[in-house]
Amino acid sequence: MYSATSAPLPPPPLCSQGHLSNLILPTAEGGSICLLCLSNLLSNPNSPTVHVSYALSQLFQALSQPLFLRNFLTFHSHFLISPLVSVLSNFDDEPIAKQTIDLIVNICEASNNHSEYNHDVYKEFVAAVSDRLSSGSLAWSRRQLYMLHCLGVLLDSQENSHYACIKDTDSLVLNLVTGLQLASEEIQGEIMFVLYKISLLQYTYMDGHCVDVLFPRCPKLLHLSLEALVKTQSDDVRLNCVAFLTVLARRGFFQSACANYLGCRDALEADNIMQTTESTMDGSPLEVLFAEAVKGPLLSSDSQVQIATLDLILVYLSCDGGSGKVQVLVEENLADYIFEILRLSGCKDSVINSSILILDVLSTAEQAFRQRLAIGFTTLVSVLRYVADIPFHPVQCQSLKLISNCVSNCPGIISTSQFEEISTILAGMFKKHVDGEIGMLQETFTLSCSTFVVLMKCSFSLGNSSLSASIRDALKSATSNCLTMHPEHILHSLYLLKEAYAYADEDNLTISTNKGLKYFILEICKLQILPWFVTTINEIEEEDIVLGVIETFHSILLQDSDTEARNFTDILISSSWFSVLFGCLGLFSTEKMKWRVYLMFSSIVDLLLGSDYGQPIRDAAPHLPSDPTDLLFLLGQKTSHNVELVCCQSAVLLILYISSLYNDRIADDRLVLASLEQYILLNSSEFFSGSTASVTLELLVNLYGLYRGFAKMSYQIPYSPEAERILFQLLAENDWDSLSTRIHLTSLKWLFQQEKLCKSLSKQMLKLCINNSIGNYIVPYGKTSQSVDLQVIAELISFGDNFGAMILVCLLGELVEDANQEHDIISVVNAITKIIEIAPVASDQLCMYGIGGVLQNINYGSNFRFPEVFSSTTPLVFSILRSVHSESISNDEAWVGITIKSMDYMISMVAADGWTEEGLIILLILSLVLYHSTNQAMTQASKIILLSAPLVSIINNSVSEACSKGPALLDHDEGTKTGEILISVLSLLFFSLRSAQAILPGMVDFRNLLDEGCEIQPLSYVSIRGHDLCKLMHFGSPPVKLIASFCLLQIFTGISDHRSRNQVHLKFRTGYLSSMRAVLEGLIFYSDIRVSANCSQCLSTLMTWKEVEIESIASVKNSWCRLIIEELVMSLATPSVTSNSSMIQHKPAVNIAISLLKLDQIPPWMTTVFDDSSIVSVIQNISPNNVSTELVLLFRELLNSGYLKPEHIADLNRVFQACRRHLYTNEIQDTGAEGHKEKTCENLDDLGKARAFLISLMTQSFPYIDHRRSPSWKKQLLEEIELFSKRLMEDEAG
């Protein structure tokens, strides 16, 4: 057949068997192959297998040669088809079968690849092999296996266009189905593959009229396939079987088999394949068999088998067949296998996707699946963690759904760590979505929100701070996402927000952090959703979104009635919420929208006014129109005992009332006022008959007062005098109380401007005062500007254009005239005191209406238990005197009586019990009376105080007792009883010195207070000796030093004023003044700038008294005075201590230096101190920011004294010029407060606050202490600089 030669020869004419040369094909090696000999060899079943194998290998090799292949395909492509097929059926030899199949495939591929040759080779091979299989002649031997494998390879390796080559499909399928009954796994695997390929080819290329050859054998074929899958342990067989079943499932075989269950069962029993009765299983045997069949492949180590099986299950479940098969699969524990695959999947998408989709379908069998879901919950959490990080992952929704089902149905199996992990994952999904890291389908967003809600509704979620934090993050991200990028998600975001608030409200008692969660949710509503809704309402096209926002806000109001919810309500209405909701009614005029809007209105009314106040709106909602103008039309109708109309009108009044409180004008002011007047005019008979509810009357009064107030401000809105007359008559005949409701300040002001209502308002004021005295405010609905309390009354009185102050004064006067009204008097007095504390300007109004006379009547009333009533009036008197302007005090006689009674009460109290807090307060009141006398008010009362002998005695005793303590006095500050008494006494002494100088100029001579010769004579008026003040300044505590220095300065100032006016000669003993000077000099460097400034001012004053011996002050021996000046110069020349605050501290020493420079004989040591280098250093160290009036004055005196050189003057001019520029451009800031800070009164009691106030009055009497606190300090500084410049010009002119 084949011979090798050393050189190529022409093909032999004949082979060794004498066959014709046209059947002999030469090879490239020089040999040849006789196709006829080859055919005979292959077709003979008795041929030696060695020869057959060798021949096949030589042919395979020759086909790889282009010339041989071309000749073979051109002339003999069909010649070997039958012999090659015969090899498969003749020889039970696996290697030969493999060679043959490879050769057949090679020939088919070569034929297809060379288009110029015959294309029927593949078809003939398929036909030949299928015919052999269809005939059943091989009786399922090993040779049949090779034939099956060859057909499978042919069908798998070629184009799927030759299904028609199989001539007898029915017989083929019948034999294949029969072969499935064999126990051989190899045969079953090959049959499955062939059936799989045949089914694919048939379903792909047959037309609609062709008959499905597999369908008639549907039940048997399915059962055989499933049984084979159950029994096999081969992954190859499993893969083929699963692929075939998948195709059958897609073709609806399972549905058909289940429908014909009884017939299938009979057929199977006849074939003795499977003996099963319905009584032994749930569902059909096929469903149970399917569940058992897929378990093995699911546990396979081959991932391809697992994935194919998962796809089969998914296709099987997606086919129509009812919920029965789902129930069977769950009961057969298929879910457990799926969870196990997921656990071991290593987060492979191909496994996760199919598994989750299957579990999603299985979850429809809720009861049976619930237990399985609980077992695999841990695996689901890990899957959720994976899919949550992948944008648009195909099973995100299903994973969330499964998690949500498990949490809601099996909360007990979830651990705290899993619970927190799920919430963290969900919050992370929202955040990544907002940040743009991942995308999210709308369904995923919806399920994420609902899963969060399920988590919140679990019982063990209460008290979980981690969940609260995750909710906060999720709400922040979800809301931001909806309002900025995806408005289509807004409804689900609102649902999450609403449920989160309910969760926070329910958990409020369990964990304090949820109060923060509630606050956070309200902040989202206030700062994000509400502004977005108000600004975009006209652009929203979906009614559901509008309803969603309204319902969310409404649910917050319904769930909570605490301060935060009321604050949220205030913010809603302040954002024109009523107008916005009426706008919603205009955009969506549906019954659902109208009902929701009016329910919202009613809840707002309930929250602001009290429970059930909004019931009229709920009752009238079906009858109320959507347009506010139509609401006003209802209000202008006559009720005629129409219950529905009465209810509607009450609802309209409530809506107008609440909206008007927040200046939300839902209709034109003219229309509202006209409707109110029409309502009054048409229904006046109803009002007077008493059939109108008191609440309606109060609403009407408040609304009418408001819109009359608006009309008064605009001067363009007419009103009906008749309606006003009817209303006033109605109010006079009925009990009404607008002060017990929330009322607009404009309405309240208008009511208090009506003189005809003063009597009624007086009764309401009394009620307000009584409730205030027992700590029970009238309006418990929240602190807003419309709640009528003492704060509102104080503001009202401070306006001054109403009868508020008069009503209070008349009310108190009426109570005083009536007997046995002590408690009411005390309540009103305490209320007035509080009002003055809130609005000090109210004291002017009260004094103008005669509060002094009423207080006098209280003090002299014989019907009262004096101590209690008097004690309540003492704080009021002090508050009035500390707040009132002196020019507002008109009735001096009344204040004389008050002063006498108070002073007598205090003196008797001190005599009996010593000093008490009340007695000290009265002492401070007397100080304030004296203070006002300096402004020519209360002069007669002040004279009585000054000349009261008992008072003088008490004051002298108190001073003597304090002075006798000596150094121990330092320990008696304001925290001790002695300190309190001494500070109060010294305050009275200071103001008595000022008052005596103002109102008793001819009777007092302050020189006597410094004259030793008069020490043996008692003082005839309230005053103090100079030497006692020096003792107190030297030994006293800081407050005592301060007030005593003020008193001494006042004495020195009074003596200087008397000396300048009367040209009197002063004569004091030198030693006496020297001791006083020593005390003053010692306090120049005291820490309190006010004390040191007072002492420096006293020393400066001493130096101006030329007739007094003062050589000791300026002498060389006075080292202390020189030390003061040297310390001053050194400080001014040091750069680090020339800030504004340090300049203030230097003022006392600067004053001393100026006074020394003004002396006729300047101490010689001044030249040494102010030498050239020192002056240069000081000038270099000052800047425009720290120049003070005293510093400019010092340089002017140095200039006058000849201490400044031309270069000094030039440098100063530059500094002063820069200072002018800064002053004119306001670049110098007010930093003078650094020098001394007043003691805050926050932690002081009433007596401490009163003393602090009097000290502030003393400081104001001498503004030189800190000139930068004076509003004219810039002007004073500029004037002083100008004087310096003029002095220079005078020198230059001279």
TrEMBL record:
<dbReference type="GO" id="GO:0042138">
    <property type="term" value="P:meiotic DNA double-strand break formation"/>
</dbReference>
<dbReference type="InterPro" id="IPR044968">
    <property type="entry name" value="PRD1"/>
</dbReference>
<protein>
    <recommendedName>
        <fullName>Protein PRD1</fullName>
    </recommendedName>
</protein>
<dbReference type="InterPro" id="IPR011989">
    <property type="entry name" value="ARM-like"/>
</dbReference>
<dbReference type="InterPro" id="IPR016024">
    <property type="entry name" value="ARM-type_fold"/>
</dbReference>
